[in-house]
Every structure is written in structure tokens, then in C-alpha cells.
Amino acid sequence: MWVSLGVKALRIGWPEGLRMTEQMVGKSRMRHILTCGLYEDVFPAMGEHEEAWKEIGRLDYEALCRRETHHGRGLTAKFCGMADEAMKAARERGPWIYKEASKHSIWLPPRAYNCFYTWLKMAPDLIGVRREIDKTKWAGVPAAVVDGHTREGRDLGRRITILSGHYENHLKLGQMVGKIGWAKVRKMVHANKTEWDG
After folding, report:
1. Bridge partners of residue 130, in order along the sequence
2. What is the predicted pLDDT for the residue at 104?
3. For residue 11, what is the enclosing H or E element?
4. Max Cα distance, the chain (Å)
5. Among candidate residues 70, 82, 149, the one with its CA nearest the CA of residue 113
6. Environment class of residue 118 by beta-carbon count within 10 Å: exposed (0-12), middle (13-18) or buried (19+)?
7. Number of H helices, E strands in the chain
8. How do residues 135-190 score in pLDDT, each as one tens digit?
9. Contact 131, 55 (CB under 8 A)
10. pLDDT tens digits for range 76-125
11. Distance, CA of 46 to CA of 36 (rounded, Å)
């Protein structure tokens, strides 16, 4: 559940959630979580990649959370449209993906191969796109964090929530961010909603 919190806190731009995750999993595991999230969600412009890596290195949660994700930059449909190709590449071209990551001085966990592949292929170039961070104070783990990626979510029979990282859910999140904005998405999350309103 704590790893899931880290993933989803970065997704919605919530530094306090990242700080709580670090307390539970430690700095090393935190950098692993942020590395995966860099390609699954943040999806930095190629020209900002090195800067984003430095933010991960120093655990600069505010800077990372200010970075607009692909959801808010209009890239999610294309990101999700590459799902089959990216998943196949992750299965069949792992050594090539690892080598490409090494060119960027990245240790890339296999879990992130598909998203890193998509990032390489799409080569996003919108520089300087930022969002307001989520300043919500800690009041516990939001229910939307506890999905089928967690033991607790499986025990509850809760497979997919509004923050789950399945491709179809990324697409829905991108649509909702475009329609209602991050502030309203975050409000639902912190109100412990697990499904979309409307």
C-alpha cells in the first residue's frame, strides 16, 4: 500500500503523500518508485530529463510534483495508444531497452520498461509545463490508492480505482484532468472516492 501511495502521490502531484511514503519505505526504495513514475506519469520533455533526474536524486518532491504529467499535457491518448507495442517491447526487447536507459545513465527497473520505451518513441518536447502542487495535509492513505496493485486492495476486492495505473485508467484520468482539472480530481481523491463522479 505504501508503494502504491508513492506512485499515486506523484501522479496527482501531492508532496505530502511522497514524504509519508519515504518514511515507510526509505530513501532508496523511494528513488525506485520515483524512477518508475518519471516515465509512467511525469513523462518529462527530453530537454528536461536530466533536470528531473536530479530532482529524483535529491528527493525534491515539490519540484517533481510541479511537473505536469502526460495527463495534463494532452499526451495520454498517444501514450495509451502505444500500449500493445510498448508491452511487447518490454517482453521481447528488454536488453535493448536496458541499453538505451544506460545511455541516459539510468538504472531502469524492468517494471518501467514499457513506459520508458514509450517515452523514447514519443520523445516529448514541451518544455516548462508545470502544474500547481497538491497542498493537502496528511489525513491518511486515500481510498483510491488501495487498488488491485496492493494486498489490501485485493482483500477488499477493489481492482481499479480512479488512480490505478492501467492504460485504460490513464486514458480516463487524462480525459478527466482535461475536463475538470487537477484540483477537482484531487478533491475526489482526498474525499476518499474510488470511482469517478459523473
Report:
1. 67
2. 82
3. helix 2-12
4. 44
5. 82
6. buried
7. 11, 0
8. 999 999 999 999 888 788 788 888 889 999 999 999 999 999 999 999 999 999 99
9. no
10. 999 999 999 999 999 999 999 999 999 888 889 899 999 999 999 999 99
11. 16
pTM surpassing 0.90?
yes
Secondary structure (3-state) at 78 = helix
Tens of pLDDT, residues 42-62: 999 999 999 999 999 999 999
φ, ψ of residue 70 in degrees (nearest 5): -60, -25
Cell numbers of 52, please? Answer: 528531473
Residue 169's contacts (CB-CB under 8 Å, 6 or more residues apart) are 160, 162, 163
Hey, what's the cell of 108?
531502469
With H, G, I as helix, E, B as strand and everything else as coil, classify residue 136: coil
Q: At which residue does the C-alpha cell 500493445 appear? A: 84
What are the cell numbers at 139? Answer: 489525513
Give the span between the Cα atoms of 80 and 59, in whole angstroms.
28
Collapsed DSSP state (helix, strand, coil) of residue 130: strand
pLDDT of residue 198: 61
Residue linked to cell 538505451: 100
